Amino acid sequence: MSKEVLEAELNCAHCHKETLHELVYAGRLLVSTTCSVCNSRVEHESNDLWDNYLKDLPHRIATKPYRLWKRFWRTPKTLVWTLPKATFGKPFKMLREYRNLKKQK
């Protein structure tokens, strides 16, 4: 999966404080969270990730035209310029998602 790393303030189950956590997403699935203070890490089971990814994939594919349509009506000029690049890059993004899921196993 293409990995996206975000940061958020969350309560840490290990150090019992509200601390900055690194959230790692693969596609739309949360893969892991890591506390920036105590470095405790919580990960999903790789089989669960794979199963959830495969369940989510048809929904992502089916709703893509609708999501593009909504984006077009919100910002038509931006979409006209970014769509060719996004369309070209989508197969590579899907391949990265697949490889990252396989690494998790």
Write the layout of secondary structure elements.
Elements lengths: L2 E9 L6 E9 L2 E7 L5 E3 L2 H29 L1 H29 L1
Antiparallel strand pairs: 1-2, 2-3, 3-4
Helix pairs in contact: 1-2
Characterization of this structure:
The structure is a single chain. The protein is of the alpha+beta class and 105 residues long. The chain has one domain. Helix content is 55%, strand content 27%. It has helices at residues 46-74, 76-104, and strands at residues 3-11, 18-26, 29-35, 41-43. The protein has a four-stranded antiparallel sheet with strand order 1-2-3-4. Strand 2 and strand 3 form a beta hairpin. Helix 1 packs antiparallel against helix 2. The mean pLDDT is 83.
Write a short abstract of this structure.
The chain is an alpha+beta fold. It has one domain. It is built from two helices and four strands.
Order of helices and strands: EEEEHH
**Could you say how many structural domains there are in total?**
1
Rg is 17 Å
The fraction of residues assigned to DSSP E strands is 25-35%
| Poorly predicted segments | none
The chain-level structural class is alpha+beta
Tell me, briefly, the overall form. Answer: globular
Q: Taking all residues together, what is the mean pLDDT?
A: 83
List keywords for this structure.
single chain, 105 residues, alpha+beta, four-stranded antiparallel β-sheet, 2 helices, 27% strand
